[in-house]
Amino acid sequence: SQTIHQWPATLVQPVGSPLSLECTVEGTSNPNLYWYRQAAGRGLQLLFYSVGIGQISSEVPQNLSASRPQDRQFILSSKKLLLSDSGFYLCAWSVGFSGVGYTFGSGTRLTVV
Amino acid sequence: EDQVTQSPEALRLQEGESSSLNCSYTVSGLRGLFWYRQDPGKGPEFLFTLYSAGEEKEKERLKATLTKKESFLHITAPKPEDSATYLCAVQAKQGAQKLVFGQGTRLTINP
Predict the structure, then answer these.
(1) What is the sign of the dihedral through the CA atoms of B92, B105, A66 and A6?
(2) CA A8 – CA A109 distance, rounded (Å)
(3) Cα gap B3→B100, rounded to integer Å
(4) What's the gap in Å between the CA of B103 and the closest CA on chain A?
(5) Residues B33-43: what's their mean pLDDT?
(6) Per-residue pLDDT for B8 more than 90?
(7) Which of A19, A72, B52, B57 is a plausible cystine mate for A78, CB 3.0–4.6 Å?
(8) Edge-to-edge strand order for the sheet containing A19-26?
(9) According to the model, what pLDDT value does residue B60 have?
């Protein structure tokens, strides 16, 4: 069966420090991968999506970047974190058009202090 | 641009008090409308997919309906364990397979 792993679950980082969040998917090949951010009390904002290795599309200009070094690995990064980068980050995957939309990871709560 | 608006932002009900959540959408050709449930500190979990106007789906105390402009999530005789944030999302037929989400409705069921 397919599973998605996202880590860490919680992260507290100082302003100006780097960031690396990792997401891996098991049990499927060539998934579409997504990074979303959810601010407190808000909906999900799509940050990046990828349809294949090395293929990254950015949805909003920001302080973050994404990479897909392997088929089932998706990484969210920043060179220097801002206070406004705080939020709940969710990774998700899909294959083709799925009747369930996306399958989400458990999320990473990032607090920039 | 595809858009999804959910109302109300928050809803408090007594156990057993039925109600409905609204999801209004605009999309350039609907492929599917999705409902998810999200518990605090967790990722969203899939509930329903609706594809065309007039379609309905049910699961336990939840029933989702769809028109050409909106979807409703009806909650019948809710229990405290139904407390969660409910998210609505749409996926267009054209372009990348992105889901566009609404802001969610935070539902609290008091015992």
Answers:
(1) negative
(2) 8
(3) 7
(4) 4
(5) 94
(6) yes
(7) A19
(8) A3-7, A19-26, A73-78, A65-70
(9) 95
